[in-house]
Amino acid sequence: MALVCRACLYLSGASVLCLVGFWIGGRLAGCRAAAVACPVFLAIGLTRVPSLRGYRYTVCIIAAVVAAMVYPQPFRVLGGAGLSQEDRKLLILVVIQVVMFGMGTQMSPRDFLGVVKMPNAVIIGIACQFTIMPLVGLTLARTFGFPPEIGAGIILIGSCSSGLASNVMTYLAGANLALSVSLTALAQLLAPVMTPLWMKLLASEMVEVRFLGMMKEIALMVLLPIMAALIYNWIRRDRLKRLHRLMPLLSMAGIIYFTAITTAAGREDLLKIGVLLFLAALLHNTVGYLLGYWAARLSGLDQESCRTIAIEVGLQNGGMASGLAGRMDKLATVGLAPAIFSPWMNVSGSVLANYWRKHKAEPATVDVDVENTLVSKEGSIA
User: Fold this and answer.
1) Which helix (H) or strand (E) covers residue 344, if one does?
2) Does domain 79-375 have CATH number 1.20.1530.20?
3) How far is 260 from 39, CA to CA, in rounded Å?
4) DSSP secondary structure letters along 198-231
5) Is residue 375 pLDDT above 60, yes or no?
6) Comma-separated ranges of CATH 1.20.1530.20 domains in the chain
7) Using one digit for the tens of pLDDT, what is the confidence trace for 138-179?
8) What does the alpha-carbon distance between residue 97 and residue 258 come to, in Å, rounded to a whole number?
9) What Cα–Cα distance (Å) separates residue 372 from each residue in 143, 193, 250?
10) What is the pTM of this model?
11) Tens digits of per-residue pLDDT, 108-118?
């Protein structure tokens, strides 16, 4: 396996050289093949580079985006292009439920202990998460003048709860793990109300928003599979270990699937506004980190908790946003922002976490049980 990974690293470099050569020679077909091969080989090869191993998932997402942009038709078929609208929605629901069930297998009832132990920090974190990002999303959508449904997608990703990636980034940053886990768990429970509420208030002029219908969708996509996963964790009692290890991988595969089919569906729009949408993702994410950190700091929280809240605010559940866009049958428009924002959030979150790990904050009280639980989550999905 080590030999294969090393060979893939060399092949990724060779793919770059081939890409340049084909481009100079004007061979478009060769350019396409080399562009797809490079991130695929790199994702495999990074297994042999410990300092960069954490970026494999992000490189896989980039590979999915590139492949879907270069060869869109196969991914449109995978997205159910030949199915009826109802069958396509059912396919999306099943995939996102698998994603959320995989997330839920990494959670436990202990994740809610921080609500009791750190009520002030939890209230501040939840308030920041469900106010800063939707409003920043609205500002960016209007400032850049995106088409209405694409602008609604930016508001949608900002209105979603944080995902498990925030827990992993907090662990890597050496911040307040107990607070991060509690915030993520509580945000998932509040999402069926807060996400449709903000969409109704901020995006109803851009896209049709049915408050009760979206509540039901989020309950089916998020709450139901997470509750099922919590029950599964309770009755599993260390049985089915192989399945338990497989679930995070299935969740990652689900996110990659959504990224690919969304990119293929919205390829034409991405060719027109892809650069601006990436810039919006960069600003949305960066402003989230900054405002989350300083709002917590001005509220008198310790530095570790401030860093935790910054990460929780800056990272959203891209899978949930993509699933909602799919259930609205608007993957090609509303789903574009989640497809672009999710890979960037993983990159920026990793960079920020590694920076903070090297620049230690004053320690806060950390629940040892929660920290031990989080160690097992490293490598799980966003």
Assistant:
1) helix 336-358
2) yes
3) 14
4) HHHHHHTTTS---HHHHHHHHIIIIIHHHHHHHH
5) no
6) 79-375
7) 999 999 999 999 999 999 999 998 877 788 788 878 888 888
8) 12
9) 44, 31, 23
10) 0.82
11) 777 666 667 78
